[in-house]
Amino acid sequence: MKTRLSNIAALAATLYVCVAAFGAEVAPVLDSKSCDPPKYPKAALMNEETGTVSLLFLVAADGKVVDSKVEKSSGSKSLDKAALTAFSQCKFKPGTKDGKPDQLWAKVEFVWKLD
């Protein structure tokens, strides 16, 4: 009887893990080959501005961006805007919810640096 209860408990735990994994959200992923990388704005280049910008994109189930915003600024509005504009043109591998493509937010970080 003990063994049977142990087996049932193990099966229940396995089912719980499977259901939890199936019900999880998977964030969209940027397809970097689908668009051009951001271009350094002339004024930011002349001022030698650098920094890392964190962006959020709301990606539809078809992989297209429907909304976007700056989560954390690079410290330069022109760098933030250039990155947001460039990555908004990209396609994404859609995120999934409960195993099906769904509209979800994706995070993208871009580092602006001078060579």
UniProtKB/TrEMBL annotation:
One of its GO terms (biological process) is protein transport. PROSITE patterns: TONB_CTD. Residues 1-23 form the signal peptide. InterPro entries: TonB-dependent_transducer, TonB/TolA_C, TonB_C. One of its GO terms (cellular component) is plasma membrane. Gene3D superfamilies: 3.30.1150.10. Keywords: Cell inner membrane, Cell membrane, Membrane, Protein transport, Signal, Transmembrane, Transmembrane helix, Transport. It is a single-pass membrane protein. It is found in: Cell inner membrane. Residues 25-115 form the TonB C-terminal domain. Belongs to the TonB family. This is TonB family C-terminal domain. The lineage of its organism: Bacteria, Pseudomonadati, Pseudomonadota, Betaproteobacteria, Burkholderiales.
